[in-house]
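Hello, quick one for you while I still have it in my head. A protein chain has come my way and I'm curious about its shape. Can you walk me through what the tokens say about the fold? No rush at all, and the record is pasted right below.
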Amino acid sequence: MIQGSIVALVTPMTEDGAVDEVSLKRLVEFHVEQGTDALVAVGTTGESATLDEDEHCHVIRKVVEFAAGRLPIIAGTGANCTREAIHLTRRAKEAGAHACLLVTPYYNKPTQEGLYLHYKAIAEAVAIPQILYNVPGRTGCDLLPETVGRLAKIANIVGVKEATGKLERVKQIRDLTGDDFAIYTGDDATSLEFCLLGGNGSITVTGNVAPKPLREMLAAAMRGDRSSAEALDARLTALHNDLFIQSNPIPVKWAVAEMGLMGKGIRLPLTWLTDDCIPTVRAAMQQAGVL
């Protein structure tokens, strides 16, 4: 089971919006050096919504190549069309990904039975470990714990990223799935409490900017050391909140660029962080000790 700090990696781009492979390699090396436990390539934070299929799969392939087996790579392969999700998942497996992260279908708002059949079809079509991803604030669709429990009975569905911020779901999902099923948070602000309650880690935005202290905080929380986890998290609280001062990944891409790890590239309809928000994000980075 992959556990700990799983960074939802930004996709670096040049100012004209092209994927920047040089900076992508630099970011992977940075996370290897900082001890990040795993990377997600082309998730929401990686701008999956605006990369075309070939770019999407190319970024996954390059992250796998750059990591060279030094940490697991999870590929974002979700879609609101089941056939498309199967196709992306198959290509991610071919690229060498260790697992896939599949967001609930967005916009078309399926029923719980539709969600069950969607994920079941992908799992049966592609023999790779698969992680469900529930983020109703972006998709308009909530994957309920009871449906997660049904899906956990499928052998290669191995975990869920629960991004609702509802801490009660840790116990609800654990009771329905068992200890071998991974439960990750997708909400940095509540990740400390989530892991103290038995979560297996965080698929994190904050980890792009402060990977080492975030990993240490999550490790302390997962071993039940509240005092150490709280002391570490105190430095990160502003980052957890202020990296969402505008739509993700706008603030985190500015922060990673400010650290000198990549240039100032993002794709429309997202735009670069506005001047009025820069002091807030900079102050959060200074509090975390990364500037």
In short: Residues 4-288 form a domain with the TIM Barrel fold (CATH 3.20.20.70).
